[in-house]
Design goal:
The protein is mainly alpha-helical and 247 residues long. It has one domain. It has 10 helices and no strands. Helix 1 crosses helix 10, helix 7 packs antiparallel against helix 8 and helix 7 packs across helix 9. The longest helix has 45 residues. The relative contact order is 0.23.
Length: 247
């Protein structure tokens, strides 16, 4: 990897860290760049990207806490199903070929569009709540399963699930980054044991991700829902456009 490629990857990490913290889907930028700039195949890019996501999520969680919006208490009861799903998802995805991973990636990304738009529709985040604890646990087990396998776009799915459970978008994002820490801590060792992390690229990307996580959390708290809603919508539309082959 040349210095120019490293600089581009670092810059992409900053942008993706902001997007991941405020909405989700930043890995839709970094995973393809790991393939193009670092020459990594699908599963290796997926594993390498997890280092940056872990650093970004942890830095964002600390920034949310410093800004007075801690999500630890609300994230705690959701952590176990997320962790269980993440372990299963991470193991399962390592058994799939690189070509199979890329096809699955595309299909799962398309599946995120509807739930995310539904969850972030005006008025839904406080009007509709998931009252059944078993159902809520099942939903977040599915979130963990998806995040453990793919990661990219899982933030959008978490925000959608939290919005339908009654959380405002700022608090949903503060909870989301903590759940991302949990699922990444569970999934990452699976990729490490399989040799699916390329450390030079991972560390460069993590540096950018850490800056983006702090910036994204600060913008989310200070901009509130007025800023978060269009960012979420933009992330979903960008995701849909890519999956439809518009760019």
């Amino acid at each position: 990897m040349t210095p120019l490629q490293a600089a581009l990857l670092f810059g992409a990490g900053i942008v993706a860290g902001v997007v991941n913290t405020m909405a989700g889907g930043g890995s839709l930028l970094t995973v393809p760049l790991l393939r193009e700039l670092a020459g990594l195949p699908g599963n290796l890019a997926n594993g390498t990207n997890r280092i940056g996501v872990l650093v970004q999520s942890a830095s964002a969680a600390l920034r949310f806490r410093a800004e007075g919006v801690p999500g630890w208490r609300d994230a705690l009861p959701l952590s176990l199903p997320v962790a269980l799903g993440a372990g299963l998802g991470a193991y399962g995805i390592t058994l799939i070929s690189d070509r199979g991973f890329e096809r699955l990636f595309g299909l799962l990304m398309l599946g995120l569009v509807g739930p995310t738009l539904w969850g972030m529709a005006p008025g839904r985040n406080r009007a509709t709540r998931v009252h059944s604890r078993p159902l809520q646990q099942l939903v977040f087990f599915g979130v963990g399963l998806y995040g453990g396998a793919v990661q990219a776009g899982v933030g959008l799915l978490i925000v959608a699930a939290l919005a339908t459970a009654g959380f405002d978008l700022v608090r949903a994002n503060s909870i989301k980054v903590i759940l991302n820490v949990v699922l990444t801590l569970i999934a990452l060792p699976v990729f490490l044991l399989q040799g699916l992390v390329r450390w030079p690229a991972a560390l460069v990307l993590a540096g950018g991700f850490s800056i983006g996580g702090v910036l994204g959390a600060r913008l989310a708290v200070r901009g509130g829902e007025r800023l978060l809603r269009p960012v979420l919508l933009g992330a979903v539309l960008a995701l849909a456009g890519r999956m439809l082959g518009l760019y």
